[in-house]
């Protein structure tokens, strides 16, 4: 049963209600290892489903273009204040609809069309909005891309500095979407200062780890910080842009009126709830456990002969190169999904295969940590993954079906926030 209950949805639209219930059961029965996913608390779900969705609130607290903001203003102010407290920043904007618009706001705040911008190459673990060619950021600005080292799988900071000195970017991005190692924010800051660039830290994947003290913070190093509010932060689907006080006005103008109209007030409230949760001691324990689980899972996969990019992980994310297993990432991911192990196929650095049929898998431990799984279970997870990958290479569906049953049996003992299984 969904928590909070949805009786009106069941009465008004049983078809959608049934699909919601099916999705909840799917999430309950699967080992959710997609690095960008998690479970939110029932309190976050409740906040996201309130009558706040009825209200338009263009502008900022105390400076709106619509009347009737007496309640919305303190809600947004709470979210902003909590973001500032959790991350230790001078300014926070909680209005961006998602991570990509948050990143676009950085461009609008600091750059003009055609300016050079440096980011980690997408195949190396960067994000589309860091200047990749198919993104607006790669079409409207001049991208300069850095890589990871072929021998270590880690960001080549010497290359970053050489490129920065040569290309003189106006903006340098650090962070990405498939980086399993600690980001060296001080080193990036030094390079940015040397060339007079704005340093933007995209912490979408590691925000919860930073909030919980399990990863170093970019605060004091980056001029501006962007993040989604879901993933490891365990909030709703939204985003934030944080900065020093010096850049507050530019950031706010870029978000509104630069890119957006009215913020989604129900999401703002849910962000505020998630940030309050992130300030509690048990959240720090969760963040540490996310990393411990990832390290334990990485070690178990290495023991089974898997090639991990960079040799392991420092955070929640593991990137696996399946080349030595004789199967591509896509068929492996699809077989694992049928086996109750949900993850995504992913390109690996210097991947010879095409993006829609790459060599790798991306794995994350945030969601299973929220469910309560610990390090002791990671060897079992690795064993199941190994069995299914080998079976997929041989097209042996019987193994896939057996593992799916074993996964369901295990997870029946681990509650899922937001849904309770009923007979």
UniProtKB/TrEMBL annotation:
Site (Plays an important role in substrate specificity): 230
One family name in Pfam for this protein: SHMT
EC number in record: 2.1.2.1
Localization (cell): Cytoplasm
Domain of life: Bacteria
Sites where the protein binds (6S)-5,6,7,8-tetrahydrofolate: 122, 126-128, 246
PROSITE patterns: SHMT (PS00096)
N6-(pyridoxal phosphate)lysine modification, residue list: 231
Record InterPro entries: PyrdxlP-dep_Trfase, PyrdxlP-dep_Trfase_major, PyrdxlP-dep_Trfase_small, Ser_HO-MeTrfase, Ser_HO-MeTrfase-like, Ser_HO-MeTrfase_PLP_BS, SHMT-like_dom
Entry GO terms, CC: cytosol
Start and end residues of each Serine hydroxymethyltransferase-like domain: 11-385
Gene Ontology biological process terms, A to Z: glycine biosynthetic process from serine; methylation; tetrahydrofolate interconversion
Keyword match Amino-acid biosynthesis: yes
Molecular-function GO term, any one: methyltransferase activity
Family matches, as HAMAP family: SHMT
Its job: Catalyzes the reversible interconversion of serine and glycine with tetrahydrofolate (THF) serving as the one-carbon carrier. This reaction serves as the major source of one-carbon groups required for the biosynthesis of purines, thymidylate, methionine, and other important biomolecules. Also exhibits THF-independent aldolase activity toward beta-hydroxyamino acids, producing glycine and aldehydes, via a retro-aldol mechanism. Thus, is able to catalyze the cleavage of L-allo-threonine.
Subunit structure: Homodimer.
Family, as annotated: Belongs to the SHMT family.
Name by which UniProt lists this protein: Serine hydroxymethyltransferase
Protein source organism: Actinomadura spongiicola
Gene field: glyA
């Amino acid at each position: 049963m969904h928590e909070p209950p949805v009786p009106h949805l069941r009465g008004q639209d049983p078809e959608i209600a049934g699909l919601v219930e099916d999705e909840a059961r799917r999430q309950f029965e699967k080992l959710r290892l997609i690095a960008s996913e998690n479970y939110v608390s029932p309190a976050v779900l409740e906040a996201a489903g309130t009558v706040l969705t009825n209200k338009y609130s263009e502008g900022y607290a105390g400076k709106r273009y619509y009347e009737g903001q007496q309640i919305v203003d303190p809600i947004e102010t709470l979210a902003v204040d909590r973001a500032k407290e959790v991350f230790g920043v001078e300014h926070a904007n909680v209005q961006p609809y998602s991570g990509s618009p948050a990143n676009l706001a950085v461009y609008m705040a600091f750059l003009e069309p055609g300016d050079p911008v440096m980011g980690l190459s997408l195949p190396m673990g960067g994000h589309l909005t860091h200047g990749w060619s198919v993104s607006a950021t790669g079409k409207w600005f001049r991208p300069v891309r850095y890589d990871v080292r072929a021998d270590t799988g880690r960001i080549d900071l010497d290359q970053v500095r050489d490129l920065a000195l040569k290309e003189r970017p106006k903006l340098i991005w650090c962070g990405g979407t498939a980086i399993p190692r600690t980001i060296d924010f001080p080193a990036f800051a030094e390079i940015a200062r040397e060339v007079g660039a704005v340093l933007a830290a995209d912490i979408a994947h590691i925000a919860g780890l930073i909030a919980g003290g399990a990863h170093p913070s970019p605060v004091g190093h980056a001029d501006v910080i962007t993040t989604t509010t879901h993933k490891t932060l365990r909030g709703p689907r939204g985003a934030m842009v944080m900065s020093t006080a010096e850049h507050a006005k530019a950031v706010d103008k870029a978000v509104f009126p630069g890119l957006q109209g009215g913020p989604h007030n129900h999401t703002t409230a849910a962000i505020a709830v998630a940030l309050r949760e992130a300030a509690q001691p048990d959240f720090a324990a969760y963040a540490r456990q996310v990393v411990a689980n990832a390290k334990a899972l990485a070690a178990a996969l290495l023991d089974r002969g898997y090639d991990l990019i960079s040799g392991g992980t420092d955070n929640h994310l593991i990137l696996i190169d399946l080349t030595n297993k004789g199967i591509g990432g896509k068929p492996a991911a699809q077989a694992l999904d049928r086996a109750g192990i949900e993850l995504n196929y992913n390109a690996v650095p210097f991947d010879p295969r095409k993006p829609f049929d790459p060599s790798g898998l991306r794995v994350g431990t945030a969601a299973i940590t929220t469910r309560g799984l610990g390090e002791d279970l990671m060897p079992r997870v690795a064993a199941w993954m190994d069995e299914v990958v080998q079976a997929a290479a041989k097209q042996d569906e019987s193994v896939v079906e057996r593992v799916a049953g074993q996964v369901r049996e295990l997870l029946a003992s681990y509650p899922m926030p937001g849904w309770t299984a009923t007979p």
